[in-house]
Automatic annotation (TrEMBL):
<protein>
    <submittedName>
        <fullName>Aminotransferase class V-fold PLP-dependent enzyme</fullName>
    </submittedName>
</protein>
<keyword id="KW-0808">Transferase</keyword>
<keyword id="KW-0663">Pyridoxal phosphate</keyword>
<dbReference type="InterPro" id="IPR015424">
    <property type="entry name" value="PyrdxlP-dep_Trfase"/>
</dbReference>
<feature type="domain" description="Aminotransferase class V">
    <location>
        <begin position="34"/>
        <end position="424"/>
    </location>
</feature>
<dbReference type="InterPro" id="IPR015421">
    <property type="entry name" value="PyrdxlP-dep_Trfase_major"/>
</dbReference>
<dbReference type="Pfam" id="PF00266">
    <property type="entry name" value="Aminotran_5"/>
</dbReference>
<dbReference type="InterPro" id="IPR000192">
    <property type="entry name" value="Aminotrans_V_dom"/>
</dbReference>
<dbReference type="GO" id="GO:0008483">
    <property type="term" value="F:transaminase activity"/>
</dbReference>
<dbReference type="InterPro" id="IPR020578">
    <property type="entry name" value="Aminotrans_V_PyrdxlP_BS"/>
</dbReference>
<keyword id="KW-0032">Aminotransferase</keyword>
<dbReference type="InterPro" id="IPR015422">
    <property type="entry name" value="PyrdxlP-dep_Trfase_small"/>
</dbReference>
<comment type="similarity">
    <text>Belongs to the class-V pyridoxal-phosphate-dependent aminotransferase family. Csd subfamily.</text>
</comment>
Length: 439
């Protein structure tokens, strides 16, 4: 797919709901909304809404129902697992798909299922992780953090040194597939190979990676396979409250799920329980069937479009925005990639002399541009990128009345286009030249 920076409108724009919605500005005028906050959540695909509406008349409670609609709904729900497995090339003979609310719940579930009470077990997380891939591990394992370099990129050398340091006690290396702050894409297969050589397992937090890049859990080299993968529908054009945990069935056969109830047990007395086999023993209560329908519809659309085509287009958007940002005096960009280096469409920056919250408010009030600011639930990573010392952080712990450090984040979706970036850059140029007039 040969695309040029001269292209003003995305070829995918008509596939997404709400791209031409008019919103009010502070002046009272209306403008077309520009959403550069896709790393938080994406709007739904048209195909997702159509599938939801089409399926609604057949919706019924799944499993054990004898009615036709219940049988049909159960079939749709169970077939969705195969669709998800195929999308990321998981092994259907080994792996299972557990449906949850989001990536956060998926990682929490995995943390409980891997915990065996061994206080010596170590989880290797990294300095670039979202809180959801850090906090769930802390109360069950020893957690150690793989270092990042001066640009914020993961150090494979430090990963290996920590695998050696912990001498076979590493239970899991848990790493983001792509950073929600800098957009860096981690070499997950190299990390997997290194991890497996030291007899540990790997989990990839795919919340940011899966919607933008092709993911292969089972490449030709078995050492490079991914043991566990998690991701969310709401970041891939299916915002209906569904997430996914993929991993070996064996992991979920032992012990008891942290969340049990209806649907998880095969036989129950007051004295003993026979649990359902995975994945059903992990999915207590009535599941979010509509969310699963939405997720599979989104996967079908993404597959039809081609993940490589999406990646190529979003990379052109990112390169264009990066080149424009770096040409504006007074803008500091906090991510650095070489030409051809893999990344997703996320760019963190600040405007000199203007607090990150103020900059975001100006963009929204003046031009209807939505961005996100702050630390994006990755506070240790932001502290490192901004060179904030532990002593400075102690001040924030003691005083809640002062503004917290952070950055402005642009994050692109497949429906964004170059003309939207031009509008943003024109406003940023004006702000950088006359910051006091906007404060």
């Amino acid at each position: 797919m040969n695309l040029s920076f001269k292209l003003s409108r995305s070829n995918y724009r008509n596939l997404v709901i709400g791209t031409d919605t008019k919103i009010p500005l502070k002046s009272g005028q209306y403008t077309t909304a520009i959403n550069f906050d896709n790393a938080a959540s994406t709007p739904p695909f048209v195909s997702v809404m159509e599938e939801i509406n089409h399926f609604a008349s057949m919706y019924s409670s799944i499993h054990r129902g004898t009615g036709y609609k219940s049988q049909f709904s159960s079939k749709v729900f169970e077939e969705a697992r195969s669709i998800v497995l195929k999308f990321v090339n998981a092994d259907p003979s080994r792996d299972t798909v557990i449906f949850v609310k989001n990536t956060t719940e998926a990682i929490n579930k995995l943390s409980y299922r891997l915990w065996d009470g061994n206080k010596r077990s170590v989880i290797l997380s990294t300095w670039m992780e979202h809180h959801s891939n850090d906090l769930p591990w802390r109360n069950k394992f020893q957690v150690d953090y793989v270092q990042t370099d001066s640009s914020g990129k993961l150090s494979l050398e430090d990963l290996e040194s920590r695998l050696i340091k912990h001498k076979g006690n590493v239970k899991l290396v848990t790493v983001t597939g792509a950073s929600n702050v800098t957009g860096y894409v981690n070499p997950i297969h190299k990390i997997a190979e290194l991890t497996h050589r030291y007899q540990a397992k790997i989990h990839v937090d795919g919340a940011q990676l899966v919607p933008h890049n092709s993911v292969n859990m089972n490449p030709k080299n078995p050492l490079q396979s991914i043991d566990y993968l998690t991701f969310s529908g709401h970041k891939m054009y299916a915002p209906f409250g569904t997430g996914v945990l993929i991993g070996p069935q064996e992991t979920f056969k032992k012990g008891i799920s942290e969340y049990v109830g209806g649907g998880t047990a095969e036989t129950v007395t007051h004295d003993w329980v026979v649990w359902e086999p995975p994945p059903h023993n992990e999915e207590a209560g009535t599941p979010n069937l509509m969310g699963v329908v939405a997720l599979t519809a989104a996967i079908k659309t993404l597959t039809t479009l081609g993940m490589k085509n999406i990646d190529q287009y979003e990379n052109q958007l990112t390169n264009y925005a990066n080149s424009k940002l770096r040409s504006i005096p007074g803008i500091t960009v906090y991510s650095h990639t070489a030409p051809g280096e893999p990344r997703i469409g996320v760019i963190p920056f600040n405007v000199n002399g203007i607090a990150h919250e103020q900059a975001a408010a100006i963009l929204s009030n003046q031009a209807g541009i939505a961005v996100r600011t702050g630390c994006f639930c990755t506070q240790p990573y932001i502290q490192r990128l901004l060179s904030i010392s532990p002593r400075q952080m102690d001040l924030y712990r003691k005083r809640r009345d002062i503004s917290r450090p952070g950055v402005v984040r642009l994050s692109f979706g497949l429906y964004n286009d170059f003309s939207e970036i031009d509008i943003l850059m024109q406003l940023l140029e004006r702000i950088s030249k006359h910051p006091t007039s906007y404060i």
